[in-house]
Design a protein that fits this description.
With 716 residues, the protein is an alpha/beta fold. It has 25 helices and 24 strands. A 7-stranded mixed β-sheet has the order 9-8-7-10-11-6-12, with helices on both faces. Strands 15-16-18-20-21-22 form a 6-stranded parallel β-sheet.
Length: 716
């Protein structure tokens, strides 16, 4: 700048100065261009280089487990090899890429092996410390894992040798007597102490059996907990190890032919997405490209193209071995199109989360030919039938946590530790019972308990039992999305009234109630894990699903029994009948007390008068002070055990009645004839008996259009 100022200030610059004045800007621009190009080429070169072994995020592991057999002599060589064969037999079928290495193998490859393995299992034998060669290799292994902060990925197995003796250096006595170099001996001693003091290790004595399965689960847990995690999941994934292993086995990663699809299904809140994420984290580096399409059920319907911008979906595009990951927000159908164009001929791991439409699966099927053989597609869905109908044969159904797993998860959520204070165990066990093995409820419950004192636990758990948590309720209600109106109504009927009833009986009741066959609707509810059918043919459902259904009915009626569509609680029914507050909104009353309970309703018999839309009335094990003076003619199902009279109300017209069961009643034959004379044209199930003295008579009811053979049990 000073030179330019000098030139400009001269009155008559020389010819040399004029040339310099013209050349200097050109030289300056050339210098800037050179600097830019050199910087660009340097960055391009660095981008093409593989990650170093000291990278903070290890990737590109060739092996999941390095199984090292440390044999110091020939005396125990056979036993140690038997143990390593056993471990290899567990690790191989679980799709954990395992390499077996013996210290007698070539030493030069050991350093490379430990760099390309996620974790190492080191089997230490009784004579291990008698070999300087084995001790040197062990020191090298520990140095590498320690230098890279991965000591937790080391799992020692002590075979016929006490870890305490190893830590004390008892087995190095012979080297001390041989006057081995002091520094070398100190290095061996520190290595053995470090190995023996690792928190996770296994010890097999002379009389102990080999627990290969336990070692396998511990190894898998360490592989899963490795730092290489493209997708984040919560800490302390209780019960996840065995579930991950089963999904990986279904993926059949060692089979390179074709593109396989695996489905993960189960109830809402059971951990399907978490499981899929953990599987991805474990096997991501075996693929060229990893894609995760999250929560596609909230995306647009694929049968139409919408440009709404309030339902975005996350598409994770990750290439293992690179420093960066490209995260973009796109629609599901755009994601599929993008995958086809970008990932053609690539070995791809694609996870599609929360599929709820067949169109989505059909779209996935159309792109499998684009991927390289060995690619895998994992889909999660609440609808098992959806996966089956698409032809996905490999399906893993996620089950509830057992009591032990549930207690571990709750304890960790509350105390951030595996061990709870002794004074809390009773409260935790009760909370586990309330959560019913659902991870969602355990985590939500634990997040509240950790903020409360022990004195507050009792009151909070009581309120939790009486009123479902709003957060859990909102998540569970997502499972009702996409149901047709009839499916939702049938689910609410079963949740409120028919848990534990035989399937066949419920089908008859609901068919009469809705005047429609309900078999397909019930099957749809089963496939969506809203209800279940036990091995004995009874309808069951998860306790949280049942509570969710009841809460929907209560909320819709503003918790006022008189306007509720369904009544099933003794106190609510007693209030409505004794106070005569029933309305046209009541459609089902099911008061079925167990034989150990006693219920009494003291009324004037007029409680049903205003229930002109009541269709189903089921009463069992309840004593009424008087017989009903009125029954709605809208009734389609009448099942009243110990009906308190010999006669039905004279103003009752049974034209809509399909099922009439009055067990343990005191009816007489003349009353049956009177009922039939009123021509109940829809009646197809008629049963009377007094419970003690009855006879079976097969009768034909010729006056009824739907007449059929019916068993009528009448008192003698």
């Amino acid at each position: 700048m000073h030179y330019f100022y000098f030139i400009l200030c001269q009155k008559k610059p020389s010819r040399r100065d004029q040339v310099l004045f013209l050349l200097l800007p050109l030289l300056f621009h050339c210098f800037c261009l050179f600097k830019f190009l050199s910087s660009f080429l340097l960055h391009a070169y660095m981008a093409l280089q593989p990650l170093s072994s000291s990278s903070t995020r290890p990737s590109g592991f060739k092996y999941d487990v390095l199984l090292i057999c440390g044999v110091g002599g020939t005396e125990d060589e056979e036993d140690v090899r038997e143990l390593t064969d056993l471990l290899y037999g567990y690790l191989g079928p679980a799709e954990l890429r395992t390499f077996r290495f013996t210290f007698t193998d070539h030493e030069a490859i050991l350093e490379e092996l430990i760099q390309i393995s996620r974790m190492a299992i080191v089997v230490i034998s009784n004579n291990f410390a008698s070999s300087s060669y084995c001790l040197d290799n062990l020191s090298n292994i520990l140095d590498y894992f320690d230098a890279n902060g991965r000591l937790r990925q080391l799992l020692p197995v002590f075979h016929h040798v006490d870890p305490d003796d190893v830590a004390k250096g008892v087995h190095l006595k012979s080297f001390k007597d041989d006057h081995v170099d002091r520094l070398q001996l100190q290095k061996w001693t520190l290595a053995l102490q470090q190995l023996a003091n690792l928190p996770d290790h296994f010890h097999f004595g002379l009389e102990d059996e080999y627990y290969g399965g336990e070692i396998f689960e511990k190894a898998l847990a360490k592989v899963i907990s490795d730092d290489f995690k493209p997708l984040r999941v919560q800490d302390n994934l209780v019960g996840m190890v065995s579930r991950v292993a089963k999904v990986i086995k279904l993926l059949d990663l060692q089979s390179g032919g074709g593109v396989h699809m695996v489905g993960i299904t189960g109830i809402v809140g059971i951990g399907k997405t978490t499981l899929a994420r953990e599987v991805l984290n474990l096997i991501a580096d075996q693929f060229e490209v990893v894609c995760f399409l999250r929560n596609v059920s909230n995306d647009i319907n694929l049968c139409r193209i919408s440009r709404r911008h309030d339902h975005y979906d996350r598409f994770l595009y990750f290439i293992p071995g690179k420093d960066e990951e490209c995260v973009r927000f796109i629609y599901f159908f755009e994601a599929i199109k993008d995958i086809c164009s970008r990932l053609c001929e690539k070995k791809v791991l694609l996870i599609v989360d929360d599929v709820d439409k067949l169109k989505q699966l059909q779209t996935l099927a159309n792109i499998t030919d684009w991927f390289s053989p060995g690619s895998r597609i994992i889909t999660t869905s609440r609808d098992k039938h959806l996966l089956v109908s698409h032809g996905i044969e490999r399906i893993y159904e996620v089950s509830d946590l057992n009591d032990e797993e549930a207690l571990d998860l709750l304890t960790w959520t509350v105390f951030k530790d595996k061990i709870a204070p002794s004074e809390c165990k009773e409260g935790l066990n009760y909370a586990v019972t309330l959560a019913s093995g659902l991870p969602l409820s355990l985590i939500e419950l634990g997040s509240h308990l950790c903020e409360l004192s022990m004195l507050e636990w009792k009151y909070y758990l009581r309120s939790w039992k009486e009123s479902p948590d709003e957060t859990i309720q909102a998540v569970l209600e997502l499972s009702l999305d996409g149901l047709v109106a009839m499916e939702k109504n049938i689910f609410l009927d079963i949740a409120c009234c028919f848990k534990g009833y035989p399937l066949v009986e419920v089908q008859h009741i609901l068919r009469a109630h809705y005047r429609e066959c309900v078999t397909d609707y019930i099957s749809a509810l089963v496939s969506k894990f809203l209800i279940n059918i036990s091995s004995s043919g009874e309808l069951t459902l998860h306790e949280w699903m049942r509570n969710m259904g009841k809460e929907i009915v209560r909320r819709k009626s503003s918790r006022m029994p008189c306007v509720s569509s369904r009544l099933w609680i003794l106190e609510d029914i007693r209030q409505v009948l004794e106070d005569c507050t029933g309305t046209h909104k009541i459609r089902t009353i099911c008061l079925d007390l167990s034989s150990t309970e006693e219920g009494t309703i003291s009324w004037d018999g007029k409680g049903f008068k205003n229930m002109e839309n009541l269709k189903t009335l089921i009463i069992k094990n309840v004593h009424f002070s008087e017989a009903p003076k009125y029954l709605p003619s809208s009734l389609r199902v009448l099942d009243w055990q110990s009906y308190p009279s010999q006669y039905l109300p004279p103003n009752f017209y049974p034209g809509n009645l399909s099922i009439c069961k009055l067990p343990k009643c005191c009816f007489v034959s003349s009353e049956i004839c009177g009922l039939l004379n009123k021509k109940p044209v829809n009646l197809d199930n008629l049963s009377f008996d007094n419970g003690e003295h009855s006879s079976n008579e097969m009768v034909y009811v010729s006056c009824l259009p739907n007449s059929r053979e019916m068993t009528v049990m009448v008192s003698e």
